Amino acid sequence: MYFRVTLPALQDGKKDEAITFVKERVMTEFDNTPGLLSMTAAIVGETSGINIACYESKESMEAVLDQIQGILSEAADLMAAPPVIYQGDAVYGKVYQTMGKESQRPSYLRLVVGVAKDTEAVLNFLKEKVEPIYEDSDGLQVTGAIFDGNSAISWNFWDSEEDMNAAVEKLQAALDSESETDLFDGKDSTSFKISFLHENYIVKRLYYDSLANREFKVFLESNANTLDEMVVSANRIAEKKRDVIQKIRVIKSCLLYTSPSPRDKRQSRMPSSA
């Protein structure tokens, strides 16, 4: 099996529109798609979403890439930024409860993203330490995991948030154990600073948690010089154009007054306030 995990960031106030779009547009677009085994979508808070699509193979997913891109283009007005996408072959997973295609049973999703130092070690950790916790938990529906490069993405669906929380303490204890901290470069992607770079703006670096608290909105401070006041003086100088050291291309300011050339016998002109 091959999975594609899409994490869109929604614009403020677009949550309800996004839910409607997923139900009426996305799900109907991919209904009965050859090679598509399942598709699940969830909304996290007010401005984040998750879509997990399971295909028979990578080739099955690539066969519908044009459809996927078309849907993403339609959803552009709902998004605050391009979605983060992970994809890869299934390396771990199990179905604990079988649900029909039209099932209306509620599910609660937990998604974990981390940067693995050693993907093989992480996979062994899932099988040897995490799976026994899953097996002993109530309300678990489905689990799964993929690697996209060094990124490790795992998820689990539960009957309720309460069922998930009952298992989280044990799962977190396994992740926090001293012997397991060497598996990841930080416990998850929230441990890293994300850099925002743009020409003519000061670089800003934020941790994921800080970014989430800002609702994924970042305002950069300009590093360009500005002119609040400017004096313009024009004199005739015997200088060739090629000898001018630097050209002034754009000046954004207001003209306060003009100073005449010494050769100009007329008086200085001041802007009239009358």
Describe the protein.
The chain is built from six helices and eleven strands. The N and C termini lie far apart (78 Å). The strands form three sheets. Strands 2-3-1-4-6-7-5 form a seven-stranded antiparallel β-sheet. The protein has helices at 15-29, 58-62, 65-74, 119-135, 161-176, 208-213; strands at residues 2-10, 36-44, 48-55, 79-95, 108-115, 140-148, 151-158, 193-196, 204-207, 232-233, 258-259. It has a domain at 1-95: Alpha-Beta Plaits. Helix 4 (119-135) packs across helix 5 (161-176). The chain is an alpha+beta fold.
Strand content: 25-35%
Mean pLDDT: 76
How many helical elements?
Answer: 6
Provide the CATH architecture of the domain at 1-95. Answer: 2-Layer Sandwich
CATH class of the domain at 1-95: Alpha Beta
| Gap from first CA to last CA | 78 Å
Q: What is the SS-derived class?
A: alpha+beta
Low-confidence stretches: 187-191, 225-235, 244-274
CATH topology of the domain at 1-95: Alpha-Beta Plaits
The Rg value, from CA coordinates, equals 29 Å
Q: What is the share of helical residues?
A: 25-40%
Side-by-side strand order of the widest sheet:
2-3-1-4-6-7-5
The geometry reads as: globular
* Number of β-strand runs: 11
Characterize the main sheet: 7 strands, antiparallel
What's the SSE pattern? EHEEHHEEHEEHEEHEE
